[in-house]
Design a protein that fits this description.
Length: about 425
């Protein structure tokens, strides 16, 4: 039986490796490490199909190191210890090139499994390579994370995907038997969602389903064939992103019925419940914010509960949170405020802190006027005194515009009473 197309044309060298030039290009971080043969432990973080496993195997090959691979799905502590023992023995033969242990989906490892790696990494018995689609800040224990460099792998660009299609058509022995004409590529590229593996799987499906010697790929042809073979919910593909998008937009749009429906679609499709809970945390601040500050508290409690309890009971907690967020008043004022503030910082650079509000811990600083004209708010009526707290170059800049909801309308009234016409509240 033939291996899948993605496996058949998997690159064997960095020269053949498409994309991720920020890591493996001429001036890439990993390229520099390979040139010096001083490899650090690494965690590759990126969406599915961005070449994490391929990159790990190429690095091992080009650095001429022993290579061990485990999958977090089917490997326990015993398997980890067995590999570490093998690595220690091979390390005696490769004293300057300690073996590489690659762990796929490292975010699925429990704390105890991750703990079992610490000593081996610290002692240098292994160089750890981990691959994850989830934010390692949440999923990898701090002690292990501090011993690894985290490298972000980006979804393939349009050009990368087009180059990959061209390579597959010309290099693969099976596809080369047919005359493949890429008349239209928009559909096949869109369906891939930047996932190289899905792109190649789709190409193979489309080509091999045609009996004729010549295959002309069009958008309509791709959509017809893929739709007939699409599963209910592909949590690693385009549908994943489409349904997550529909879920977030339903909550933002204050429709609890649609929101719970899309929640059910994700749960039934086997989505990681912590991923859903994290998205709710972000939404509670980005789309609700101070229109209802309790939303963030509930979303955080939901994340903690889902992490502790797990499926199936946690689906009820998620449903409660989703309905609460969907029926809550909405405001993106906090999101817009920090977005505008960051824009100004990028445009204006490092503006000096006004002398009046600088810290003055030393005699010299006091003599230089640090904090001299600062007015302590609590010394004044209502615990407020009007004073300039922004750098001189951007004095009076308004960044926060309260949303039009009960809570933030009260903020507007309060700020207007304090600042009068200064910020036009």
């Amino acid at each position: 039986m033939n291996a899948p197309l993605a496996e058949r044309i998997r690159p064997k060298t960095l020269d053949d490796y498409l994309s991720q030039k920020h890591l493996v290009g001429k001036n890439g971080t990993i390229t520099a490490q390979l040139n010096t043969q001083m490899l650090s432990s690494m965690i590759f973080w990126g969406p599915p199909g961005t070449g994490k496993t391929t990159l790990a195997t190429i690095i091992a090959e080009e650095s001429n190191r022993p290579f061990y691979m485990l999958s977090a799905i089917d490997s326990g502590v015993a398997a980890i210890r067995e590999v570490i023992e093998k690595a220690k023995k091979s390390d005696s033969l490769f004293s300057t090139k300690n073996p590489i242990l690659f762990i796929d989906e490292i975010h699925r490892f429990s704390k105890s499994q991750q703990d079992s790696l610490l000593k081996a990494v610290e002692k240098g018995w292994i160089t750890l390579f981990g691959a994850t689609t989830e934010n390692p800040s949440f999923e990898v224990i701090p002690a292990l994370l501090s011993r690894c460099q985290v490298y972000i792998l980006n979804s393939f660009s349009k050009k990368d995907l087009e180059d990959l299609l061209a390579r597959a058509i010309t290099k693969d022995s099976l596809l080369a038997k047919k005359n493949i004409i890429l008349k239209e590529t928009e559909a096949i590229l869109r369906i891939s969602g930047g996932d190289a593996r899905k792109l190649l799987n789709t190409l193979e499906l489309v080509v091999l389903s045609e009996n004729s010697k010549t295959v002309t790929i069009t958008n309509e042809m791709v959509l017809n064939k893929v739709q007939k073979n699409t599963v209910l919910y592909d949590k690693t593909g385009e549908q994943h992103y489409d349904i997550v998008s529909a879920f977030i937009k339903s909550i933002r749009g204050s429709d609890p019925n649609a929101a719970v429906y899309w929640l059910a679609r994700m749960i039934e499709g086997g989505e990681d419940l912590k991923f859903i809970a994290r998205r709710l945390l972000i939404l509670a601040s980005e789309d609700i914010g101070n229109a209802n500050p309790t939303a963030l508290v509930l979303a955080n409690s939901t994340f903690q509960a889902v992490t502790t309890i797990g499926y199936p009971e946690s689906r009820i907690i998620l449903s409660q949170c989703v309905i609460y967020l969907a029926t809550s008043p909405k405001s993106n004022a906090s999101y817009l405020a920090i977005k505008e503030a960051q824009k100004i910082v990028k445009q204006t650079g490092d503006l000096s802190v006004p002398l009046a509000i600088r810290n003055a811990p030393t005699k010299l600083m006091k003599e230089l006027g640090y904090g001299k004209e600062y007015q302590y708010s609590h010394d004044y009526k209502g615990n407020f005194i009007s004073q300039e707290l922004l750098p001189k170059e951007i004095e009076g800049t308004k960044l926060y515009n309260p949303g039009h909801n009960t809570k933030e309308n009260s903020f507007r009234i309060y700020l207007k009473g304090l600042w009068k016409d200064k910020y036009d509240y």
